[in-house]
Amino acid sequence: MAGAFDFAPAIALLPFGSFLVALFLGQYMPKRGALAGIIATVGSLLLSAWVALTVAGGETYNEPVYTFVAMGENPIQFGLLLDQLSALMLVIVSLIAVLVHVFSLGYMNDEGETGLPRYYGELGLFTASMLAFVMSSNLLMAFMFFELVGLCSYLLIGFWFRRDGPPSAAKKAFLVTRFGDYFFLIGVVAVFATFGTAQFAGEESFPHLAELALSGEGQVTTMFGLGAEAWFTVVGLLILGGVMGKSAQFPFHTWLPDAMEGPTPVSALIHAATMVAAGVYLVARIYGFYALLPTALAVIALVGGFTALFAATMGVVKREIKQVLAYSTISQYGYIMLALGGGGYVAGVFHLTTHAVFKALLFLGAGSVIIAMHHNENMWDMGGLKDKMPVTYYAFLSGSLALAGIVPFSGFWSKDEVLYETLVHGIGTDGGLGVVLLLAYAMGLIAVFFTGFYTFRMVLLTFHGKPRSDTARNPHGVHWNVKGPLAVLGVLAATVGAINLVPVHALVGSVPEFLHDWLYYGPEMLNGHHYHELITAGEFGGMSAGELPGLGETGTLFASAGISLTVALAGSALAIALYRGDSPVEHTDRLGSAKTVLFNNYYQDEYQVWLAQGLTMNVARAADKFDQGVVDGVVNGVSSVSLFGGSRVRRIQTGIVSNYATLLTLGLVALLVGIGLMGGWF
Amino acid sequence: MLVELLLAACLVGAVVTFVAPDRVAGKLALGISLLPLVGALYMYATFDGSGNALFGGATMFGENVAWLDLAGYQLSYHTGLDGLSLPLVVLSTVLIPLAILSAWTPIQSRQSQFYGLVLLMEASLIGVFSALDFFVWFVFWEAVLIPMYFLIGVWGGPRRKYAAIKFFVYTNVASLVMFIGFMTLVFALGDSVSSFGLPAVTQAIAAGNLGNVAGVAGSTIALVSFVLMFFGFAVKVPIVPLHTWLPDAHVEAPTPVSVLLAGVLLKMGTYALLRFNFTMLPGVAQDLAVFIALLGAASVIYGALLALAQQDLKRIVAYSSVSSMGYVILGLVAYTQYGLGGATFQMVAHGLISGLMFMCVGVVYNTTHTRMVGDMSGLASRMPYTVGALIAGAFAYMGLPLMAGFAGEFFIFRGSFASTVLPNNGMALITGVAMFGIVIVAGYLLFAMQRTLFGEFFSATEYDVREAAVHDVAPLFVLVLLIIALGTAPGIFFEMIWNASQPILDNVQSGGEAAVESLATVLGGVR
Amino acid sequence: MVPIEYYMVLSAAVFCIGVFGILTRRNALMFLMSVELMLNAANINLVAFSFQNGNLTGQVFSLFTMALAAAEVAVGIGIILVLYRNFDDVDVTKATTMRW
């Protein structure tokens, strides 16, 4: 009997089909291809759910479906790896994709946009690439679909190509992520050179081979004279380059705020479930490899913690609603990285899940507000929308509470677990790794304050107070196709935290930790339990869980939760204190010179633009001058010399017969003398 | 025998087209050029050769007829296809009809002569890729130049004479140097060969028959002739710093000719490098690997930087060809299965991709009459199909997965990263540096696309910009489909390439080693 | 019998006179005469060596040379006539149109 796994390729092929249908036939269809996309993604969602149910029954799947290169000892194959992690992600991605498609009916069709077949086609391809990426069974396949995800985000960010902004933003997004992918591609090639395979799972998978090599049971070819661990760390960090590019981690985060130039539903898809999620998902996917490398883990944690804080501070001063959300995305993915680096595999996946839900919600909510505001995104022109659009308001509020990490909304549970895992591993681990983890934890904790602040600043400015512009007084109405997705996500954002109520479980043992159990009982070598063993093993990760002095394990758990909740509440309270009332005023001037720095995003764009244009372009121009002047100059010089020489030598041809006769005679004499000398006559 | 039929079809077709009236020449030439295409596809479908032609593998579709006896050397008319040459023959026969189709719009004078010359060139190209005797090969090799010279010099842009003469003289001098190099090699083999057949020469060298001539050691002769031949072929590829004829030729050549120049003619250089230098003299190649790899990496990075500085769309694509061919050199010198195979695969892939890019630029030029980046913007709203194909081509150039460029580049990277021809993983380091090309290529193509295709519509020239005719756009989409097909199923060609490159590596493992040893002593400190 | 050296000296002398004439004269007729002198110097050599070796081939060759010289004079005079018609002069240094 054909099971769910036999239909799994269709999860990605259905949206791909909708890409073709919408692109080529969309203009003849009602809703311009949206229906094809919705049908396809609903189909993907149902199949994903079926796969997830089958996985829940204890079966997993790791089989090749297509042979890319059949030759050689290790043929390159595209396969499907369906386990707990990918099944979860498939459900998330296809759910968000369905909702984004439905929302697009309101955001694009009802607003009378042109080029919709192209829009829905690209949306379908985007979804298909991401789903295929999620199911990838090896690193090369993952890289390929990773790139296709990048292509689709380029196309969608630049959807409104007639304006100047979107094409520029699209170009930047592709270039910056491409820079990260450069390292990733070296990493892929290095994995092939080192292990001969790039499989994620099974006995012949590269994480497993690396594990064997490090424990002295296997042999691999390391390069550049490095030891196994050092070389694996280099490879891991190279792959991490791609992750940081796609997941917009410092210093590759600059493309993401600009990417807000794309249509808002696309932003929701990019931020919640596809492009940006792809990066951290990859780390989770090959966590068995990273778990062996404490240095790589430390780098991941540090980058994550720093990005979380860094991006949150920038979100504090932004005026446009989507800009705030953009920086919050960067910051939240920083948390996920922090969790993964800090040994909290489950915490990272948990936050990835909850963030997908509440960030999609926030973006779609912002989209609803933007429709209402006639595409004005400035929060200082809004205000008072609470009463005009209650569905949007309550859904958005639910998402905001989750983002800020207020109990009992989903974000609280996951963020708390992220910080808790980092904290205990930081305390318990000796040496530099522990210090780094504690440092990353501290940055993550401070970022919680800023998160609460910018979230409630955004909510208050958008929905509360008195309307500050004419459009805010008479907002455009929104239809069911906008409210529906918001309602679904609003409920989920409030409740999805229930899948892993760690503190409650500690108190009442009968409350299960679904996600923890789900991920801990995955296939051999791909489950959280195995990762935990690797991380805590002295020969590999070398981490161990500690506890706050005098509190015990449970005490530490609650102390950590209490601290982060307090900080989040403090941040939120400050925002409410500053921006409540009918007509709030800007307080950014109080920041003094810091305000300028924050508004300019710490001048990150400036130096990157300088690197791209100031430096590289000038080098290129110099190279061009060199090429035209010196290299081509030499070529043309050879021809000039020949021509010049010819023009001189030809002057012998005077046309006077006597001169020719003279030359003849001289030649004869020279010949005679020469022969004489050779023959020894003299 | 099929190869000869193809040649005959092209040659007879060329004569017929020459005498046909201008009015029908384009359609006639298209019809005639479909014959070799059908023939090549039939050959592809029925190909079951094995091994490498130069190592006595089973070749197909060729002939071997004794021709002349010259000073103790038997010259034969010897042709045949193996897994390395068949993909390139297919590439040539695919690109020529498309190029002819794309010439219908821009070529408005002396059509019958134009299409006749194109068909003449097709015959020479098929000959170059199928000849297995040096003299036959050399005749075809040189014969390619003649139609090319006229195609650039007669139908080209304002500086066509300069470009045509530069192209002709540069490549012809290179051919001379290469000729001397090969002859040196043959004469150093002494009595062990009695023909100029490429298989005979290859196998004689592999058997270690390279003897002393006039007191000069065989290994030194191998080195000298390697360098001479490398120079000769490097001009054709072109490898930095011998590349400056290329942008001039491309800018002046009419679009269909650019398509053939970038799509097929450059591959003659890499194909010859593979056949001659890297197959016949693997020992020298490995001794000089560090220089060759650095030249390849330099071509990649330097070519990409030059492309970044250009404003003319055709120059951008021309320089990026230099960059892409650098990868091929890197793959060849790696001496791994993926490296050699990837390099050959990349030849085909780049042929299709650069052909597509030049065609797109050509369509844009036919419509706007300018190629300067600053002279136009927002073309996407006026000519969506052309722009769609252009975007597809640009991403193929950037190595987007599931398109042919990625497959070729990935194979090369995989092969050269793991290569052991240099000590201390030197190849991995050079490969890592060269791979930065994928970032720069994205940079210049994205910048150029943003400025020309997107934004408000604007054109500095006074022409009615609208979507081009069907026969202009159709070849673009044919190429896009081929690129995607080759990118999703690289086995189409990679399998036969793989099998045909295996003997080269076997030779390196066995016979090649001896040559390496002796040369290493001669070269002393080169490594 | 006259030693061969005497013939050689005579031949060399005649040849040198011819060369001298070609190098110094500008009149085309003098040029032609000088060329004839050089030809005859060669003839002297041919005949002398033929006599020395007792082989008639050289003398036969000198007969050929004479016939050739006659033909050459005919062509040469013709050229000189054309030269005069085109340049109004028989000065060889005036006719310099065939230069670079």
Automatic annotation (TrEMBL), chain A:
Family annotation (InterPro entries): NADHpl_OxRdtase_5_subgr, ND/Mrp_TM, NU5C-like, Proton_antipo_N
Which keywords does this chain's UniProt record carry?
Membrane, Transmembrane, Transmembrane helix
- Out of the domains of life, which is the source? Archaea
Keyword hit for Transmembrane helix: yes
Q: Where in the cell is it found?
A: Membrane
Regions crossing the membrane? 6-26, 33-53, 85-107, 119-136, 142-161, 182-202, 222-245, 266-284, 290-312, 324-350, 356-373, 393-413, 433-456, 486-508, 557-579, 660-681
CC annotations in GO: membrane
Annotated ranges, domain NADH:quinone oxidoreductase/Mrp antiporter transmembrane: 136-422
Q: One Pfam match, by short name? A: Proton_antipo_M
Bilayer topology term: Multi-pass membrane protein
NADH-Ubiquinone oxidoreductase (complex I) chain 5 N-terminal domain: which residues?
A: 70-120
Provide the protein name: NADH-quinone oxidoreductase subunit L
UniProtKB/TrEMBL annotation, chain B:
Provide the membrane topology annotation: Multi-pass membrane protein
User: Could you list the residue ranges that cross the membrane?
Assistant: 84-107, 114-132, 138-155, 167-190, 210-235, 256-276, 288-309, 316-335, 347-365, 385-407, 427-447, 476-498
NADH:ubiquinone oxidoreductase chain 4 N-terminal domain residues are: 73-126
Q: Where is the NADH:quinone oxidoreductase/Mrp antiporter transmembrane domain?
A: 132-421
Annotated family: Belongs to the complex I subunit 4 family.
Report the InterPro entries cross-referenced here: NADH4_N, NADH_Q_OxRdtase_chainM/4, NADH_UbQ_OxRdtase, ND/Mrp_TM
A Pfam family annotated for this UniProt entry: Proton_antipo_M
The signal peptide stretch is: none
Keywords attached to this Swiss-Prot or TrEMBL record, sorted alphabetically, are: Membrane, NAD, Translocase, Transmembrane, Transmembrane helix
* GO (cellular component) term, any one: membrane
Is Transmembrane helix there in the keyword field? yes
Subcellular location as annotated: Membrane
Record protein name field: NuoM family protein
TrEMBL record, chain C:
Indicate the enzyme's highest-level EC class. Answer: oxidoreductase
Which keywords fit this entry according to its UniProt record?
A: Membrane, Oxidoreductase, Transmembrane, Transmembrane helix, Transport
Signal peptide span per the entry? none
Q: Write the Enzyme Commission number(s) for this entry.
A: 1.6.5.9
GO cellular component terms, semicolon-separated = membrane
Q: Cellular location of this protein?
A: Membrane
Kindly give the membrane topology term recorded for this protein.
Answer: Multi-pass membrane protein
Example of a GO MF term: NADH dehydrogenase (quinone) (non-electrogenic) activity
Q: Which InterPro entries match?
A: NADH_UbQ_OxRdtase_chain4L/K (IPR001133), NUOK/Mnh_C1-like (IPR039428)
Principal location listed in the UniProt entry: membrane
Give the stretches traversing the membrane: 6-23, 30-51, 63-84
Name any one Pfam family assigned in the record. Oxidored_q2
Highest taxon listed in the record's lineage:
Archaea
What is the similarity comment for this entry?
A: Belongs to the complex I subunit 4L family.
Q: Which HAMAP family match?
A: NDH1_NuoK
**NCBIfam families referenced in this protein's UniProt entry, alphabetically:** PRK05715.1-2, PRK05715.1-5
Q: What is this protein called?
A: NADH-quinone oxidoreductase subunit NuoK
Q: Which organism is it from?
A: Halomarina rubra
Q: What is the lineage of its organism?
A: Archaea, Methanobacteriati, Methanobacteriota, Stenosarchaea group, Halobacteria
Q: Which gene encodes it?
A: nuoK
